[in-house]
Amino acid sequence: MQDIIELIETGENVSPDTIFKCFQEIGEIGDIMIFKIDAGRDENQYTIVISSPDMSFESIRYDASTIEESLLKALKKYTSIKGAHCSIVAN
């Protein structure tokens, strides 16, 4: 979860490696993260969805025109929800 918190705090270095680390961390927690590119849209082509297999929270979905924006918004919401469970709360 620390890599996710650092990404949210800095908002920088959203590289493929960073995105993959987020997928790994969310998977290790036991949740699901989906990334989709919808080239058929003129706007908001990048979608991030984070959900829980046990329905412990409502699915999080953000569409944006950049990968960075959709990822950061979804991760901020995710950490605010999971904060109580992980003893980490995002700014």
Give the gist of this structure.
By secondary structure, the chain is of the alpha+beta class. Helix content is 47%, strand content 19%.
End-to-end Cα distance? 14 Å
How many DSSP E strands? 3
Could you estimate the helical fraction of the residues in percent?
Answer: 40-55%
- Largest beta-sheet characterization: 3 strands, antiparallel
- Low-pLDDT residue spans: 84-91
| Total DSSP helices | 3
Taking all Cα atoms into account, the compactness measure Rg is 13 Å
Query: Structural class per helix/strand content?
Result: alpha+beta
Give helix and strand order, one letter per element, not per position.
HHEEEH
| Overall spatial form | globular
The overall pLDDT, averaged over residues, is: 81
Strand-residue proportion: 15-25%
Count structural domains: 1
**Strands in their spatial order, largest beta sheet:** 1-2-3
What is the element layout, followed by pairings?
Layout: H1 2-10, H2 16-29, E1 32-37, E2 46-51, E3 60-64, H3 67-86
Antiparallel strand pairs: 1-2, 2-3
Written description of the protein model:
This protein has 91 residues and is of the alpha+beta class. It has one domain. The protein has a three-stranded antiparallel β-sheet. A hairpin with an 8-residue loop joins β1 and β2. α1 packs across α3. The chain is globular. The C terminus is likely disordered.
